[in-house]
Amino acid sequence: MSAVPAAVPPAAVASAASAAPAPGVEVRLDAIRHRYGDAFAVEDVALRIAPGELVALLGPSGCGKTTLLRIVAGLLRQSEGTVRIGDDVVDALPPNERGAGIVFQSYALFPHMTVEANVAYGLRARGAPADEIGRTVGAMLEMVRMPAFRGRYPRELSGGQQQRVALARTLAVRPRVLLLDEPFAALDKNLRLDMQIEIRRIQRELGVTTVLVTHDQEEAMSMADRIAVMNAGRVEQFDTPEAVYDTPQTLFVATFVGTANLVEGRLAQRHDGGWALEAAAGGALALARAAPCSREGAVVLAARPEHLAIGAPGPGALPATVGMALPLGPSLVYELALDDGRPLKVTMPRTSDGVRLAAGDRVGVSLRPGSPAAVFAR
Amino acid sequence: MSAATAPPRSAATGPLPLAAPLGLFFAVFVVMPLLLLAYVSLHADPTLQTPGLAQYRKFLGDGFNLAVLGNTLWLGVKVTLLTLLIGYPLAWIYTQAAPRWQAVLMLLIVLPLLTSSVVRTFAWVVILGRQGIVNTVLVGGGLVDAPLKLLYTPGAVTVALAQIELPLMVLPLITALSNIDPALRQASLALGAGRWRTFVQVTLPLSMPGLLAGCLLVFASAVSAFVTQTLVGGGQQMFMPFYMYQQAIQANDYPFAATIAMVLLVSVLAVVTAVNLLARRSRGFVHG
């Protein structure tokens, strides 16, 4: 991960030996807590981020993800806990001595300086020699594909261009850790995808350990090696995007990441070792396994729309009534109602041979074979 | 400026009629008196019989007059620098303070504006006089043997004016500093710049429009602060406003007084224009 892939274009990285990838370092957070007044903004967070890894801190606004990022950057001093970058405990160090580069949500480009002066700012502050500054600035602008804009002022650039410059400015000082605070929030949708790909490319090229803060789950899914899902100051789950999506460890993760149908009921083990969910709405759903909760009792089941199947009513399937069908390109989303009126969304592939259901049809909803569904204790 | 954004209107309902009362007020009470002043200054004798530039030749040909002009402008510069020195940190503290402290600070900052300049000036007379607070403390504390001469000194005028004009410096500075995205300072710190470098490279240049506006306001009102200059200066030093008053009221030489007024006006305008040119360059960066 930390090594530069062989297929790197002969871009910036190679052209300035001095700007060669700083081998990624490990970032380790231990028992981090942060208090604002009486309230905990961050509670007992422990994360170990591998060298060169891109980790997304994902959560709703106010979950403490930005606070955590600022703690790593050194813009905020945590109430308790330690931050390690590489082998160093950096708690006592100001931002400029941590080797952490941060790209702000607003980009925070200096409006009174040209693109070139912005990118050179950190190097000048470090007292780098003029020829090195010139070389590095050239290499960085090359890397973000902005060499033609070096004489422009930030106000003369589009949002995406400003972001490239902000990235170049941060990377010019060769940070050991790259911190991105909601970097795509200000961009429109098409540009956002381009920049996500672009930043992922540059991050891979440089092999720099990166922490990305976002409230956009798709962004976290598509960019991150691992995602730390945060809620109310805590990390609920720290895992790969696939694991976060397929095997959520908490009810919050199940509902915040992707769409989840929640079915309340009682969990009971069958004689053959399988499980059954006796739904509060009536009927029962057969489960091959029950995780993360595998204790009999009151539970709530979270199932993705694409993990459910619609068939004939019968044992092991939940009785439901078809409501609406929404054609969404390649798939069809059925909105069903359980017998107590609770809605249920099921996604079916839209194939010509598929069964067409009409509103009011009585159906049975079951779990697709091999599909994961998460069970949480109530 | 508004033409670009306002919807098109017919001439009759345009913004012009709305501006008419103000325009009229300006014409009658600002432009007319100025023209009158210029007209009077262009006469050689108090009875306005012989027109000419005699008064200007008289003013510019006499070293004493030029010294008064220089003295006045220098006073403006000193007061401006002193208010800047005190006002910048004050404005900075204000922008960093918690909201409830901001309310307290704002009250303290605008307090000088809430009392008449005569009252404020007399307060300074009381503070700085031979029997004033400062001398009482100094003598009582055994720090000096005899009361110091504080009042009626150039230093006293500068300090008193600086205190009185301070809000004019601080308020525009607060506006300018509040408009700077805090992320810019953090970005600078995170890029490896120290606090001092961050101030010089980022905060100071971006607060320049407010700083220059404050300097202009303070300078213009300091050079024309008749009451404070006269009472705290005690007539020991001559400044342009008192010189004007003396020539007009005591010597009855209205043309010469008008000339002094015109010279001061042009001098201040020259300074304002120069500073505005600077301001235009710096403003471009902030409101791009």
Give descriptors for this structure.
heterodimer, A: 378 residues, alpha+beta, 6-stranded mixed sheet, 9 helices, B: 288 residues, mainly alpha, disordered N terminus
Report mean pLDDT of chain A, rounded to a whole number. 86
The SS-based structural class of chain B is mainly alpha
Principal-axis shape of chain B: globular
Q: Which pair of chains forms the biggest interface, and how many residues does each contribute?
A: A-B, 27 and 21 residues
User: Helical proportion of chain A?
Assistant: 10-25%
Account of the protein in words:
The complex is a heterodimer of chains A (378) and B (288). Chain A is of the alpha+beta class and 378 residues long. Chain A has helices at 12-15, 65-73, 115-125, 130-143, 159-172, 189-206, 217-223, 241-246, 251-256; strands spanning 27-36, 39-49, 54-58, 80-85, 88-89, 100-103, 177-181, 209-214, 226-231, 234-239, 261-269, 275-279, 284-287, 291-292, 297-303, 308-311, 318-328, 331-338, 343-349, 362-367, 374-377. In chain A, the strands form 4 sheets. In chain A, strands 6-7-8-3-9-10 form a 6-stranded mixed β-sheet, sandwiched between helices. In chain A, helix 3 (115-125) packs across helix 4 (130-143). The longest helix of chain A is centred in the middle third of the chain and has 18 residues, at 189-206. In chain A, 43% of the residues are buried. Chain B is mostly helical. Chain B contains 13 helices and no strands. In chain B, helix 5 (117-128) runs parallel beside helix 11 (226-233) and helix 12 packs antiparallel against helix 13. The two termini of chain B are 15 Å apart. Chain A binds chain B through residues 73-75, 94-96, 100-102, 104-106, 108, 110-112, 121-122, 125-126, 153-156, 169-170, 173, and chain B through 181, 183-184, 186-194, 197, 201-202, 205-206, 282, 285-286, 288.
